[in-house]
Give the backbone structure.
Amino acid sequence: MRVIERNKKGRKYYYIQHSFRKGGKIITRERYLGKIIPENVEKIMQDMKKESEKDLYANLEKIRKNFQKEWKGLPESAKEREKEEIAIAFTYNTNAIEGSAITLGETREIIHDKTAPKKPLRDIKETEAHSKVFFDMLNSKEKISASLMLKWHKDVFGETKPDIAGKSRTYLVRVGDYIASDWQDIGAVMKELVRFIRSSDANAVELAARVHYRFEKIHPFG
């Protein structure tokens, strides 16, 4: 989304231009602002963005309702299998990002078959622990908090990395050109993240994306 300028007969006119993808096509919409850019242009842009996203949120809500209807009709055994498959995929992808040598197939062996591949014991233990914490999160009735996230971190890494497990980092983290939040600010920014989670009324998909983005920017753990 951007503000563009057009010249007509020597006069300047300003528009907001917003392009987005819909049904495999790029749709471009414009809104006339006037001969000068208004002071509340940011609000106008946000309102225009929300208007264009109505169809998206309607589709997400339809998906949610259809899923809930289908989920209610499943036997408990099928629900448990589905949750386990999600745990396997989630655990594999999370650990792979951190450099684990465990493959997707081996992750399934560890979680579902309870067998250990010929891989480093640390990776195996973290795979088991991550899966357990995943189910703990699903079943937890406790409100999200910074202390709860630290507990989950400790549960995952307590056996393999006891020096950092359940603790906020106390040093600088740099990923490429990006520098994460100053370690001295982690307590404050994590509290702000928790407030955002608890107060947000955003669609679940949008909320998950925004929380993930903010959490990764903070990078609270070692």
